[in-house]
Amino acid sequence: MTAFWSRFRPFQSRERRREAAERISLEDALKHLYDCERAGRPCTLESLAGSLESSRDSAARLLTTLEGLALVRPEGEAFGLTEDGRHSAVRVLRSHRLWEHYLAHRTGAEPASWHPSADRMEHRLTEEETEELDLRLGRPLFDPHGDPIPTREGELPPPSGTPLTRLDAGRSAEVIHVEDEPPDIFETLVAQGFAPGSGVQVLEANAEVLRLRIAGREQVLDTVAAANVTVEPFPVGVSAGEPVKTLADAELGEAVTVSRISPTCQGPNRRRLLDLGVVPGTTITPELSSSGGDPVAYRVRGALIAFRRDQAASIEIEPGSTVSPGEPEIV
Questions:
Q1: DSSP secondary structure letters along 97-145
Q2: Does domain 162-233 correspond to CATH entry 2.60.40.10?
Q3: Topology given in CATH for the domain delimited by 15-81
Q4: Whole-prediction pTM value?
């Protein structure tokens, strides 16, 4: 009997893998229908096949299965979600965005790995595990890309903002969303300082490129990449393009006041700064410099703490925040 079961187990394993693969495809199809619904565009057989990178026949079989499960209904030549289908899609989306938030704020994972990792975990987390994760993370409202995280009841705010490409030259805005697909464009945007909460000013625009200022630096961005950034425009006359001073700019003995930690600083680095008391209003003084100038020891809440230059550059300070500098120590 043991020999029989040892021969049968591989078949069981293959069967489980097949069922798991089918469930993942069905859930991915539901996500596509939900994305179409949120964007106000029809979900067609062609759009589903393109989204899943599958054949029309495979997409048709998925839609037939979902219709049989009462999760999808035909709407003329397109397809829409039933109430149960919408609930299932939102559950997967909620797991995905919570996992991305976890990776961004609790691990050292690189931004480029957040989305593919969440693509896998969204199919593995149970509803109970998702709720436990939400609680552990402090019930966050947004994922690290700026996408809202659905509530347990499936509630989501309506889409907001406008593509960066529609911002006129001279106007400023706050970045509220950075699209994470395709990965190569996302990596480019992250490297240039784009993150939810960043301020950006368009200096010049044409059909091919934008010249802009973000985090005090001028950048040139092609319109294809710029279309992956959503912004909330500031009122006319309000600028977000002024150079940003950071702790790395402070001189020895110059006491400065923290305005915020840069939105591009995420994960363990951000957590460490917060644990050290680096929050808005904190006074920090550079006191000792290594022979090469990096790292520098800073006085933070009575403790002497060494920061590398890249860490100090992620701590933004109030303009003109120098207060009673003492004599710098020579090393």
A1: HHHHHHHHHHS---HHHHHHHHHHHTTT--HHHHHHHHHHTT--SB-TT
A2: no
A3: Arc Repressor Mutant, subunit A (1.10.10)
A4: 0.72
End-to-end CA distance of the chain: 78
Which residue is it, tokens 């990792």?
117
Domain positions in the chain are 15-81, 162-233, 247-317
Locate 17 and state its tokens. 């893998």
Q: And the tokens for 187?
A: 């990596």
162-233 and 247-317, same CATH topology: yes
- What was the pLDDT predicted at 331? 29
Task: State the pairing for strand pair 72-75/78-81.
Answer: antiparallel
Q: Report the amino acid identity of residue 305.
A: I
Cα-flanking dihedrals φ and ψ of residue 297, to 5°?
A: -90, 130
What are the residues whose beta carbons fall under 8 Å from the beta carbon of 47, sequence distance 6 or more? 32, 36, 41
Q: Quick one: which of 55, 53, 71 has its CA closest to 63?
A: 71
User: Could you count the other beta carbons within 10 Å of the beta carbon of residue 297?
Assistant: 19
Task: For residue 182, say if its preceding peptide bond is cis, omega within 30 degrees of 0.
Answer: yes
pLDDT given for residue 240 in this prediction: 67
Distance CA 30, CA 28 (A): 5
Task: Work out whether the CA dihedral 7, 11, 13, 14 comes out positive or negative.
Answer: positive
Classify the phi-psi angles of 65: left when phi > 0, otherwise alpha if psi is within -120 to 50, otherwise beta. Answer: alpha
Percent of the chain with pLDDT over 70: 90
Phi-psi category of residue 264: left, alpha or beta, with phi > 0 → left and psi -120 to 50 → alpha: alpha
Provide the CATH topology of domain 247-317. SH3 type barrels. (2.30.30)
Burial code of 303-318, b = ≥16 C-beta within 10 A, e = fewer? eebebeeebbbbbbbe
Residue 45, token pair as written in the block = 């057989």
pLDDT in tens, 28-78: 999 999 999 988 899 999 999 999 999 999 999 999 999 999 999 999 989
